[in-house]
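Bug report (template v2)

What were you trying to do?
Predict the complex of my protein with zinc ion.

What happened?
Run completed; filing so the output is reviewed.

Input:
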Amino acid sequence: MTASEVDLVTLGQRLRHLRRSKNMTLDQLSAVVGRAPSQLSLIENGKREPKLSVLQAIAGALGVPMQDLLRPEAPSRRAGLEIELAHFQRSAAYSTLGLPAVRGGRRLPADALESLIGLHRELARRLTEQSATPEVARRANQQLREQMRERDNYFADIEQAAAKVLQSVKHTTGPLSQRGILDIAAQLGFTLHYVPDLPGSTRSVTDLRNRRIYLPQIASGKGHDPRAVVLQTLGHFVLGHADPSDYGDFLRQRVEANYFAAALLMPEKFAVDFLRDAKADRALAIDDFRDAFGVSYETAAHRFTNLATHHFGIPVHFVRVHESGTVYKAYENDNVRFPTDVTGAIEGQLVCRQWASRTVFHAADPYSSFYQFTDTAAGTYWCTVHVESTRSGEFSVTVGTPFEHAQWFRGGDTSRRTVSRCPDPSCCRRPPETLVDSWSGQAWPSARVHSHLLAALPAGTFPGVDAQDVYEFLERRSHP
Ligand SMILES: [Zn+2]
């Protein structure tokens, strides 16, 4: 570690703490190291970056190893609060207030310091909360969807980054193995640790100081593909993500990291070769694509949307729908008309009962391959649907394309066909008259709230994640 990677405020606090614990004044220390007291004072106040030679001299004078000065922890609780105060006062949010900076030194009473820190923390919390309302989240979702649509959900720069990583570990053919993933992690300087006590609100936790990635111990068949989780985490580093500046940024980073993981699990070159052969046989099938690369159905379906339009000129839509009919995720560049609310948001809306995403739940065998043509106001679409059971219920994952492209897919000759007249309310928004007659005024349903779609993002350092859980977890792990 070099001095430039160290937080200067913390370094200064550690230096002052050590000097005082040796009962040395600034003048005494300056006499030993041969630097003006004013210079040392600037260093202690975190306002000057010391040269390595000066640091060595100071460490020598104090009789401690230089590493003691450079350690990233505050030397005491009081010093920790002073460091936090200095950081808050240097933030952009504080400088826009035009208030003076308060020095955290010894003359500031403890209760005043505690009070200032409390106010700063609350201000930061409120600013985060404001920027994480459902409206902001919906708008961010919509913007992101538009950007994905504009580029046909194909991100050339991420494909390149993934190809480069694959090259660096000499991966030359087919799907990426567990071995390959370990190689990639090692190449990027990370070690992987599978632990039983990962905080429930996280997919993974990375200790940046020791470059360790903590992952959940694999429960068979549950949750996310563990390989994808590792690669998503590494994706943030490869793609150079910094702390997200707002919710939109957070979403974009997440999409990019997921894209990166999929581009490694299903490398572009091999995936395109595979799909080209299938298309030539008029037998494109998401299940085959999944099986060839050993990924989840959703990953394969999503990856298909990355490549279908860019490489094969096939416009597509993708939608993940809960058994209740609610949309959880959606993408289209084939002009299919997803249900929207007044703000244009799709997530949380109900899809038409006639769409394959919902009719599949009534199929004789919803878990086998399911195909359907649907006539809609925007034209006729062909869809292939897969149903999966999760802890939060059953979900359908649909990939669809306009009628004229169905010919390239297995099941493109299905005779199953429905008519959707939505958004015409007489299609399926209104219950049949007979039911209305007999039940109107006699029913009192209690809605299940889809909290992740409707609630504001919890405020805090990490959106959606309990920061305390994460910090406690890392404490546990670093001091066993
Ligand atoms: Zn309908």
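What did the reviewer find?
The radius of gyration is 28 Å. The pocket of zinc ion is lined by residues 352-354, 420, 422, 427-428 (CB under 6 Å).
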